Amino acid sequence: MLREWFGYSLQRKLSFIMLVTTLIPLLFLGTFAFTTSSDITKDKAQQAGLNSLAQMEAKFQFILKDVENISIFLIGQRDIQSYLKRTDENLDAQAQILGLMTNLVYTKDYISNITIYPSNNTTPLSTSTIYNSSLDKEIVIKQITDKIWTGLYHIENYLGKRDVFSFIRPIRAMNTFQTLGWLSISVDEQVLSRIWSVPQLADGYGQVALLNDRNEIMSSTYKSWLSQKADSLFPGITDRVRGHSSGVWTSGTGNTQQNILFYREPMINWTIVGIIPSKLYSAQNRYILQLTAVAVALSVLTNVFLTIFVIRKVTTPLGSLTRLLTKINPDEPLPHYPVYTSDEIGRLAGSYNLLSTHIEALKKQLIHNETRKKEADMRALQAQINPHFLYNTLSSIHWIALLNEENRIAEMVGALSDFLRFSLNKGKEYCKVSQELAHIRNYVQVQSIRFPDEFTVDYVVDARLSDSFMLKLVLQPLVENAMIHGIQMKEEPGVISIYVELKGNSMYVKVMDDGIGMTEERLREVTESLYPAAETIANDASYGLRNVHERLQLHYGLDSGIKIESRLNEGTCVSFSIPVLEDNHENLDR
């Protein structure tokens, strides 16, 4: 029922097709735009996050270099070297050293304290009084032989309880490299964590953590993460960051899904990690989805309106034409249709009116042609008598030649009679391959009597093609052309070769001679003369070729024309390819 409803109206079919072909791409485009926008939003957010981590890393690297430079400055101070070599506690030297260290950390709020531990067990020198420290649980200072960064530990000073981590390196004598003591510079985690808040990661929705080379969390915007192993909070992070300077990946599923970004600090191989909740992208994606849906909806409504408007503009005139055509009276002229526009519909209506005029003229012409046809039939009937008279005359000549023992004349007349009988052949256009070749043999026999010992003809024919049908009288002009314009133009006898081969579903035919051939310029002229549009005038040498070429194209198609190859003083080859026909196709002539 629905199919009939659609099939009855062109307007319904066009409306349905146009709406479907435009709505589906619109939906795909909307989906693609939403997906692409979501991916771009996510990529930009991740790139912005990595840029933020890079800025944090630059600030952190400044602190690391500053701590390194302070340590190098202090271990090279002569006063500190002299003090550490002493066995007694010189209060003046202590005061001078403490004053120097205090001045160094005065403007550096991220340094909690600087402490020198003498190797002679004298009292350590520290810029601040530490009431309690868990450093001894982290390391044994006297066992340190190279510079290291400790893990996070707790101290208690005048500011209260603080989380710090320290840079510790041995202090060695300048000349003997004997270990005189150890220098410890502690970094305050609470002050350091301010770096992770400026710039804000993901507009303040993200969290940042600093991991040491053992993947322990040394500093973070989320304090409950401190001192924990990163793998316990972010499974697989150790493998993810190994061997990479930066990167991004997604962890978790559903509401707990989060994007993890990292940036490695190359100086001490620590890693800054940023965590952005995926729900942040979801909120942005919902806004993009709403915009995309509104855009697609507006496009759909506009498309529906324009489709209906355009289709009505097209189908209304067509409907009027249809109604006029359904009311045609064969005995009366076609009704006139008024033309109001110059577009395709207006031109169609004009063509309809022109067709009406042509039909009226054709009616009159048809009546006139019927009268002429009857006259032509009478002339054709009379013309059929003439071939019979010609055949009878040739038979009489053939009989008289035999009576007078003129065998060559008899053979020539007999071959000519067969040649003409096949050429007329009651107007048929197709014949068997074997008949076409027999026709050539009759022609060759006549010409061999006229031009004895001047040429020979070789036949190479695939036996499978003998009973196949082909267009009649296409070989004889080619053989004649080869004989007259190729063989007879040279002094010694020549050879004409005829090849008929089966290649796939095609019959491939070649007529070759070893005559004088053609120059390139002459070959180009002959080739151009094959085409009706050519400006060159066909002479006797190319008229027969052009005739065969046009007949082949008319009956078999444009790809079946002849092809000519020739070289001067070597010969000429004319070839063509046609489909193999197993039956007589007289009614399929093009």
Automatic annotation (TrEMBL):
Q: Which residues cross the membrane?
A: 287-311
Localization (cell): Cell membrane
Query: Pfam families under this entry?
Result: HATPase_c, His_kinase
Query: Do you know which PROSITE patterns this protein is assigned to?
Result: HAMP, HIS_KIN
Domain of life from the UniProt record: Bacteria
Enzyme's top EC category? transferase
Q: How does the record classify its membrane topology?
A: Multi-pass membrane protein
* Catalytic activities: ATP + protein L-histidine = ADP + protein N-phospho-L-histidine
Indicate whether ATP-binding appears among the record's keywords: yes
Please report the stretch or stretches of sequence annotated as the HAMP domain. 312-364
Q: Where is the Histidine kinase domain?
A: 467-582
Q: What is its EC number?
A: 2.7.13.3
This protein's UniProt keywords? ATP-binding, Cell membrane, Kinase, Membrane, Nucleotide-binding, Phosphoprotein, Transferase, Transmembrane, Transmembrane helix, Two-component regulatory system
Instruction: Write down the PANTHER family for this protein, in alphabetical order.
Output: SENSOR HISTIDINE KINASE YPDA
What is the protein named? histidine kinase
